[in-house]
């Protein structure tokens, strides 16, 4: 028996069709971008008036976050490019690449700079230098309280938009399992921003009350460690998406049910799925078809299966089905061993 392989598309559909990225994530990104741009300017003003290290760390944090939101928007835009001969499956993974860049920016510009600033300030404290916040000490307090309110509003927007995407999933599980990186990134960034502002407020207030700069050092260091931890979390999750993740269990179940409900399909021998982008799934499956001598009947079964899968799961943009006759004695061909390297 000779197997017949097919990657045919139903009429009116092409592998080049690419879904538009969700507007929910863009709304959250733009809200965070506007908030962080304004807050960064205020923080720099507060640092300039008082010289408080935690204010400078938070100002750089806001600059990094502003750049990150810009990267997410650029990544979403580039992911919409049409497929080419060099990239036949499109550019959906651009969103993962730019999300990984966000983690790098947060780690280097945000976290490492804050830790460096804390170390530099610690040397001054140990040397016995006294820093007087002056008569403008209240300015950082007002800025930080206002920034907490603004970042809290941005976080609320991000959480509201993520609620629409995660359904009944717990937030942490949603961040771990989401295939679209934008909303999880914004939620983590905004959460880190609110916590970091609380750390900065802690440093400023206690430094003013006690007159000792060690609390400014502690606040700045906590901001640095927080950003490094969030950056590592983002990098770990995005790396998994870049390597290639299978479709969600719900999507796999939907695709399998659609296949098994197709007339002429006896069973699924094996199937693999891969996310080419947040809203793009590739499916490769070997299916058992009813024994027949008619190639046209086999082709018709494949066409029906393709229509059923695409109707059940619209994210399937690349679909490859291989028909076969099922046998209980079937064994997949083993991969030949690679020749060992010559010894010297």
What is the CATH first-level class name of the largest domain?
Mainly Alpha
How far do the termini sit from each other? Answer: 46 Å
- The neighbouring-strand order within the major sheet is 1-2-3
Mean pLDDT: 82
Write out the CATH superfamily name of the largest domain: Cation efflux protein transmembrane domain
- Strand content bin: 5-15%
Spatial extent as radius of gyration: 27 Å
> Please, how many helices?
9
Number of domains: 2
Unreliable segments (pLDDT under 50, ≥5 consecutive)?
1-22
Oligomer class? single chain
At CATH level 3, the topology of the largest domain is: Alpha-lytic protease prodomain-like
> Structural class from helices and strands?
mainly alpha
Count of strand segments: 3
Overall form: elongated
The helix/strand series, from N terminus to C terminus, equals HHHHHHHHEEHE
